[in-house]
Amino acid sequence: MTVKADIDFQKDLFEAANKMRGSVAPADYKHYVLPLIFLRYLSNKYEKRRKELEQIVKDPSSDWYTEDDEMQQIIITDPDQYKAENVFVVPEEASWSYIMKNAKQPNIKEILDNAMKRLEEENPELEGILPRIYQGSNLPPENVAGLIEIFSRDVFSANTDDSVDILGRTYEYFISSFAASEGKRGGEFFTPSSIVKLLVAMLEPKSGIVFDPACGSGGMFIQSEEYAPNKHALSFYGQENVVTTVRLGKMNVLLHGINAEIRLGDSLLNDQFPDLKADYVIANPPFNQKDWGADRLSKNDPRLIGPVTNSNANYMWMQHFLYHLNDTGTAGFVMANGAMTTNVKEEKEVRQKLVDEGYIDCIVQLPEKLFFRTVIPCCLFFLSKNRDGKNGYRARKNEILFIDARKMGTLVSRKQKALSKEEIDKIAAVYRAYKYEGAEGYEDIVGFCKVATIDEVRANDYKLTPGIYVGTEVSNEDDVPFEEKMAELTQRLLEQFEESNRLQEKIKKDLEGLV
């Protein structure tokens, strides 16, 4: 097990930074703080590489050894020497030492914006990632200086071996803390880590393409890379609809040594990867998205296996995920519980197709309160194209694994639960025993897991709630949150109004024909 540096001071850092909030909206504060951590990271990496080069040119055993001072400088400042080691070139006016030296200058906000600009000029790969927002903000210069002071502490110094690792983990800690402080809105860019870990443990990404079309701050990519036994065996592609979140995600993955291709755009209406076929799709899409623009979708859209409704995008997301799987790929994603039982005509039709055509591999119902400050219960769906008994997988096209994990999870704060490592391992082990050819140890456990046949699912009106199958309480209407139930009932009422109007018109015409 890798021993990681002690960074228990994260909380203190976050509280110190958070105290300076006040001049900007709480939800925007992260856009000022996180780029500073990224800037510090880039500067440390550059400084470290520069010191290595300074030693190399003076080492007689090195191929780059030279006694010529001018030649030494050419080698030390050669951008290719940095790019070859995946290090970005940091010009003097963007270096942390320069920023630290000028932190208390009245024009520090202008200096920071210029640092971001110069970094992008020297490194075209960073284009669009670094925001020039400090000068135009209401942040007082002394608050900016305070933030710079926080990230200038010795523990972040380039002289510390662990500084790069610590900065990566500090960035992630800050993202999760900002998400927690923003409550429900935080879920738009950050998925709680125990959910991400469970998805990754079940999907087991080891090599190939990982695609997250709702990638937020890139947490799924980071956890997948950490899980894979061989580093850089995975390629990462993501899409995100909010420009500031795209920036957060790109900075986050770079801080963790990952080179992911993240594009801006609405995944459902403007798919930026129309030809991409992935080994793994992993995502936490927005729940119960209304008025998402279904009418703008072409009827010939190749992703569609069934109808869509503008009242809820859940099943459009599922069709999007399925389309982007290669012939043996698997998608694992978070979904609102209502998707397991919805009776909205269009959604139910797609659910029936996914069941009848053998794509639904597993459903996991999760405990409540896993998300920040929202009690909306959620579940995990797994769709797979490797269910025909090939490539080491067991033939299971006529079966679905149901896992009821509602009783799992422990409160980690007054309002939030998390799954423990043991619970994650237990659920993932059940899924592995179910899906692999020759795997031993799977057995139905009353109240926890059950492999049901497709016929059983059909007999239950295609309902996918695990509780129906594993032998615990049968799902009832009270299990569905008010917001979801209300949306479903409203949709049903509107449909009945339309039918009523149609019948009235027909009766009127019939009566007119009689007169």
Describe this structure as you would to a colleague.
The structure is a single chain. The strands form two sheets. A nine-stranded mixed β-sheet has the order 3-2-1-4-5-7-6-8-11, sandwiched between helices. It has a two-stranded antiparallel sheet with strand order 9-10. The chain contains 17 helices and eleven strands. Helix 2 packs parallel to helix 11. A hairpin with a 5-residue loop joins strand 9 (410-411) and strand 10. The termini are far apart. It is 42% helix and 12% strand. It has 515 residues and is an alpha/beta fold. Residues 1-7 have low confidence and may be disordered.
Briefly say what this structure is.
With 515 residues, this protein is an alpha/beta fold.
Q: Name the poorly predicted regions.
A: 1-7
Q: What is the mean pLDDT?
A: 88
Number of strands: 11
Structural class: alpha/beta
Helix content: 40-55%
**Quaternary structure annotation:** single chain
What is Rg? 26 Å
Largest sheet: 9 strands, mixed
Please, how many helices?
Answer: 17
List the helices and strands and how they pair.
Elements: H1 10-18, H2 30-56, H3 69-76, H4 79-83, H5 96-101, H6 108-122, H7 141-150, H8 163-182, H9 193-203, E1 208-212, H10 219-227, E2 234-240, H11 243-255, E3 261-264, E4 278-283, H12 314-323, E5 325-336, H13 345-356, E6 360-365, E7 378-384, E8 399-404, E9 410-411, E10 417-418, H14 421-435, E11 449-453, H15 454-459, H16 466-470, H17 482-514
Parallel strand pairs: 1-2, 1-4, 2-3, 4-5, 6-8
Antiparallel strand pairs: 5-7, 6-7, 8-11, 9-10
